[in-house]
Amino acid sequence: MITRRRILAASGALAMPLAMPGIIRAQGSAPIRVGEVNSYTAIPAFTTPYRKGWELAVEQVNAAGGVLGRKLEVISRDDAGKPQDAVRLAGELLDEQKVDLIGGTFLSHVGLAVSDFALQRKRLFVASEPLADALVWEKGHRYCFRLRPSTYMQAAMLVREAAKLPAKRWVSVAPNYEYGQSAVKWFKTLLTKARPDVTFVEEQWPALGKIDAGATVQALAGARPEAIYNVTFGPDLTNFVRQGNTRGLFEGRAVVSLLTGEPEYLEPLGDECPTGWIVTGYPGAAVDTPANRDFIAAYRARFNEMPKMGSIVGHAFISSIVAGLKKSGSTETEAMADGFKDATFETPFGLAKYRALDHQGTLGTFVGRTALKDGKGTMVDWRYADGADFLPPDAEVRAMRPA
Amino acid sequence: MDVLLVQALTGLASGSALFLAAAGLTVIFGVTRVVNFSHGSLVMLGAYLGVTILPLLPRDPAGFAAGVLATAALVALIGVALEILLLRRIYRAPELLQLLATFGVVLMAQDAALWLWGPDDRTLPRPPWMRGFVDIAGQRFPVWDLTLIAIGAAVLGLVWVILRRTRFGVLIRAATENRDLAAALGVNQRALFTAVFALGAGLAGAAGALMLPAGSANLHIDLAIIADAFVVVVVGGMGSLPGAYIAALLIGVLQALGIVFLPKITLVLVFLIMAVVLAIRPRGLLGGALVEPRHLPPPPIGPTPAPVPWLGAAALALALAAPAFANPHTLSILTEAAVAVLFAASLHLMMGPGGMASFGHAAWFGIGAYAVGLAIKFAALPFPLPLLLAPLAAGLLAAVFALLLVRLAGVYLAMLTLAFAQIVWAATFQWVEITGGDNGILSLWPPEALGTHGFYYVALLVSVGAALLLRVMLRAPFGHALRAARDSELRAEAIGLSVRRLRIAAVTICGAAAGLSGGIFAQAKGSVFPGYGAISHSVDALLMVLLGGVQTLSGPIVGAIAYTGLYDKLLGATQSWRFVLGAAIVTLVLAFPDGIAGAALRWHAKWNARR
Fold it and tell me: What pLDDT score was predicted for residue A11?
């Protein structure tokens, strides 16, 4: 059967020798192998679109002749959401599959564990999704690069909007683990810096996946806040929003909410999606740039569905690796560790690069307000927040990174 | 004051939801003594079936009620299938084997739900009547929460009427009180068990559908529900429905009030409540004296069959020679297998010969791992001192904990270990300044001076050596005394054994051994995380022991190696590894109810007899 995938593969195979005959002679034509580890069974809502994103990118890269004259191949593993399994699988990918570099991971602690393993083995690790700040700062090292805007960056993007609000009495609600804790810490720190008159009068820390939504909403309302900062997502967010709507928590109050604009988390809210929340996310087809249009068209042709945030990250993950490989001109680890610095790549959101300073990607995200359209949640009044604009001064970053 | 009143009422609503989720579990346990780990999966299936069925029906209360009943009926059918196809075949096997079998079902249900309903959360749009509210003390209170409180009380009343006023109920109560006596009086146990399973599963299905107005159907319901449901059942007293109701409301209200004063207590509150209740009332709030079903004491452990030492020596020789031909990844698998052998052997000593099943064995593993992590992070102790600290720390804490533990027996004892493990887990998770929270402690690699293979030999020899030492203990007088205490407490006391002291010693030794395995693991992986002490890791240990066979000395060793190998191969081989692993566990349970080593022992005896 002639499928789209085969045509892409065939055209890639044809184009490859034409593209860079010199390098083929030098390095052979075996594919460049990327080992990828992620929490496919533990976090399917995000990682399923993510997998589709990188699959599409790999097909596109190979159809266009591959990279360094070789095909690109991704060998993917499921870490079951456990850092110890991720570390073992990273070892399997390096030692048995002979991959040239490793990448992936979703959960922060899994990302940190694999990054530490990469340092121990002195091999390149490209973290695609984990948001922990420590990954490129306190625990940053020569061999680790990170793609997505970190918790700090996303909090900083929201603070810029939150500081414009008249509200002074704030409350926060966040899942009780590292991501929630640092999301609240940075938001508080940055907001009180921008607005010394702001106070935080109450905080709630529901256990991830087990929010007692009615009691949490009631406790927040009891503090009589003027504004709410929310970090819950997924099933917890659905429960929280439903209780909040019925109990009137959001009425007459500003709400600033992390990640809520991502289709993964916005769609399940359905017609109960609150309006006017300031959120980070991805407005989908409303972003009418050529890069995003082309991406959506290709994605829909391939999978017959709209891309989500995970799809963007998965696609950009491969683009960033291709750019890094091209700039390095080699798959030798030390060459890549130098070459990935300042490597610039196209994403559906626009151009981004890995900073030489701390290996943080400058991929941004969209900041806007939630709205209801045809009984579905959507983002309006959005603008793209470039990651490069929301990082601490270089001297502070240098001080945080180990020598 | 008004705030607290509304908060308490909210707690009653979430407590009622909790009761609905736990009611089926306590009914099933009361009669069949099956610890049904897949109860959470039945609730999850109820939520998914509900979100599929309900949009087809009218959006008024009557349509909703019909949809919930239809969902309950469907899940009851699934429960019947589960009982007939799986559990019925293993009632005569060691008690905890059902736990293993139902855990296999949990894994299969996770992948099945992912295939059938996809990865996205599914929500039921709320019709206006579900969004309504009434004014209570000047605050808006959801009508749905009031409805939940009413449904909880109604279900309690309905099941109470079934139990008290019908013949079926009389039979259930008779079987709950004394299963063997009921059977002796001619009660058809097969039909009764199937019916009870249908009732319990139906309640689970209804609970799942009733979660939809407050939230979504998602793939995390099963594990989120199961731990809390167990707590409710145990706090209430196993098998007692009114007890479960009181426990659920108590937990709901304390949780709602607790988060006002201590918002960060969410992770651990339910387990703290369970620990306190069990310390004061060892059988739960309303639990009566259950007559445990009579089991013949397991046969005494015979002499080691002739091939075992040879096989063991051959395996060890192979493992010792491995660095000459194996790559680093294979060595890391072998290291994990060695650690698992010690971890499983330590649990085996406690639950097999010790007769104390533990659902929280990973606590000791985690404590050992954190002892290594903290010793390196804060004291920078040189190798191998951190490794020595691991068994010391775990053993010491185990000794203290054992004082509380040995007052209990059976499932209550197992649940107290679970509570303790959850408290340890929450401490490692929440005490961020010391433990690094869920980001763990990194860079705990063994010193480079050991060379590439040095630590492999350390891990292999220490783990296997300690596991063999446990085996020697079981052959020594200590082991015989421990088994005597398990088989007949009274007679053991009569011949002058101190059962209490024996058990405290056993728990301490097991804690220290598991702690040592955790310490080795921390250095082998170069990191520690709260997950090392999580419920799922305790379940891993149970799986290894039960897979290998509880009533043999080689069982845990065989089980640990088999499980580690199976898990690793499946994780790399297929996206649907959970389904395959679950199916493999179910098949093994059905084929070898006495475990792999138990089956091998049987074959060996048969072969010898034929000769």
Answer: 47
- For residue B143, the model assigns a pLDDT of 95
Identify which of B141, B432, B571 has the shortest CB distance to residue A181: B432
* Residues A200 and A224 reside in one and the same domain: yes
Same-domain check for residues A193 and A332: no
Contacts of B221 in chain A (CB under 8 A): 235
Structure tokens, A139:
């625990």
Report the half-sphere exposure of B520 (CA within 13 A, side-chain side).
Answer: 30
Output the pLDDT for position B122: 92
What is the C-alpha separation between A343 and B110, in angstroms, rounded? 40
d(CA A376, CA B226) in angstroms, rounded, equals 33
Q: Which pLDDT score, from 0 to 100, does residue B292 have?
A: 60
Do A183 and A273 belong to one domain? yes
Rounded Cα gap, residues B167 and B181, in angstroms? 17
* B517 at interface of A, judged by CB pairs closer than 8 A: no
pLDDT number for residue A59: 96
Which residues of chain A lie closer than 8 angstroms to B11, CB-CB?
Answer: 215
Q: What is the pLDDT of residues B509-550, one digit of tens each?
A: 999 999 999 999 999 988 999 999 988 899 899 989 988 888
Specify the pTM: 0.89
Tokens read off for B432: 């961020």
* Partner residue facing A113 (CB), from B260, B442, B577: B442
- Which of A37, A43, A88, A250 is most worth mutating to test chain B (most B CB atoms within 10 A of its CB)? A88
| CB-CB under 8 Å, B119 with A48 | yes
Alpha-carbon gap: A389 to the closest alpha carbon of chain B (Å): 27
Q: Residue A403's pLDDT is what?
A: 66
A235: nearest CB among B6, B218, B439: B218
Shared domain check, A271 and A165: yes
Q: CA A192 to CA A197: how far, in whole Å?
A: 7
Q: B152 Cβ partners below 8 Å, 6+ apart?
A: B15, B16, B17, B19, B20, B245, B248
Q: Residue B338 and residue B517: Cα distance in Å, rounded?
A: 9
Domain count, chain A: 2
Positive or negative, the Cα torsion across B39, B41, B45, B48?
positive
Q: Which residues of chain A have pLDDT under 50?
A: 1-2, 4-26
Give me the domain span that covers residue A394.
Answer: 152-286+366-400
- Element spanning B142, H or E: strand B139-142
State residue B450's pLDDT score: 84
Q: Are A44 and B114 in contact (CB under 8 A)?
A: yes
Instruction: For residue A204, give the nearest of B145, B221, B263 by CB distance.
Output: B263
Under 8 Å between Cβ of A76 and A36: yes
Cβ(B10)–Cβ(A214) below 8 Å = yes
Give B128-148 pLDDT, tens digit per residue. 999 999 999 888 999 999 999
The length of chain A, given as a count of residues? 403
C-alpha to C-alpha distances, B370 to B132, B272, B377, B607, nearest whole angstrom? 49, 21, 10, 47
The Cα of B491 is separated from the nearest Cα of chain A by a number of Å equal to: 46
Chain B residues inside the 8 Å CB shell of A222 = 3, 7, 260
CB–CB of A203/B246 below 8 Å? no
Per the DSSP assignment, residues forming a β-bridge with A257 are: A230, A279
Query: Do A207 and A303 fall into the same domain?
Result: no
If asked whether residues A180 and A99 sit together in one domain, one would say no
pLDDT grade for B45, boundaries at 50, 70 and 90: very high
DSSP code for B439: G
Asked if A206 and A175 touch (Cβ cutoff 8 Å), the reply is yes
Q: What is the pLDDT of residue A12?
A: 45
Residue whose pair of structure tokens reads 């004394």 in the numeric block: B178
Distance CA A89, CA A40 (A): 13
Sheet holding A72-78, edge to edge: A72-78, A32-38, A101-104, A125-127, A144-146
Q: Are residues A13 and A140 in the same domain?
A: yes
